[in-house]
């Protein structure tokens, strides 16, 4: 599923703005016909945004169930004869969509796009009504997982992850037009050999003249594919024909961390006379990624990750994508000396990866599989003690949903040079046979979908070295550790000793180790002369201690502080208006830790 774009054969219209909105706590909307016509008693709701914090009402913030959105769009007159597609960049966590009362799409998973061909339902020049119901319920069979409880005071959503369950239309909605015979998908694999680059392409074509194509249909049905690669100045550097092949790029300018050099590939579908059916253009970074022993190599150079686990989280808009926050956050990454981040704990908006490509920022791309661990829920969040994997909890249906989340993530992000590593889960239970059985096929699936990138998962402190049954399936070891915070709280000397001992154990595995989380909650403005937890001084000392440990273990190839910025969580007795482990506050003001990281990371760059 390719993203909408404007070009010689394609046009798109962004449907963002103020939509009609209404909660449906009793689930009556379908019965009462809210899927066609105007939504009765609607409020205004901006798209994109989470709905939760826009309205100052607990019933909205803590709503569990369906929420309806509706808007109208006038289909551009010029789209006659085109294929017209309605696309949602995300709808959290699942959605059903109608156009003028006809159901056109259903999608499960809150962080990846879906679309519907609505050509037969709309008329160019006329208005169409789009109605959407989004549902935010997390169950044992959703990714992430959760439990909805019926209480005397209403339904309550419980979940096992540490960020607020924001929901709604978080990203852009598009109506776009393509030719009926069109480029359906493009897969690119870059390569490097000295100063020569290569780019393998594989294009599928769909539509009446593409014979339903797929690469193999091309050529035989009077349709051909031409590809043309231009450099950043627009000069052609290579060209080829056919549904698949490999371009050679002499004197290549590789994409590299800190140097987001992008070529552009134009993919043309042409008829027998060379006339254009469709053109799809996409930015291309030529780089390689590989693990070699304990080294993580980008363009065959050892790479050391500096940066953060992030969240899509901001006041009022929740997880709604916002270009202002995007550009500002990347400026702050640059300021602090970060070269990378992890999309903890779900796939981020497409715009984030585009911008990372352009800025030369390296991305660890994560699925929304977080909270598959009832040990954390009961140990830290005070939940019930039930097994993680069982016929009543995480089961093969969950695994199928998880597999689909991986498929959609790889399909969406496979061509981004910034993405160098897949993370298929955060902190699942990983020290049991059941965990091993659950994860083995998911690792195999990820490798089958993308043999070009390493894959891993993020290990939790409850499965320390020597007990984890899943880590050996990964190409890298990713560790979240809170020595000096959740354990040895306030005792950095004891924390340092314990942490070093565990890390040395992991180093013996012979794989690169990325510390994907280490952090200490810190209230900005709280100070002390001695390092006391929650003060800005303690956060700095805590990070220094961690860095001493990392610097003493050669297999450590990266440090991602938890978190880039403070973020909202479910209410709880150890969260003060959310998680406060940010190096920046929620409104992006630096704590003392941000300055300390800046000194370290600009030195190591
Ligand atoms: C973790 C989780 C992250 C939490 C963090 C914390 O291990 O991966 O989602 O926010 O710890 O601060 O407790």
Automatic annotation (TrEMBL):
Occurrences of domain Glycosyl hydrolases family 2 sugar binding (ranges): 13-179
Domain (Glycoside hydrolase family 2 immunoglobulin-like beta-sandwich) ranges: 181-287
Record-listed E.C. numbers: 3.2.1.31
Superkingdom of the source species: Bacteria
One of the Pfam families matching this protein, by short name: Glyco_hydro_2
Family, per entry: Belongs to the glycosyl hydrolase 2 family.
Protein name: Beta-glucuronidase
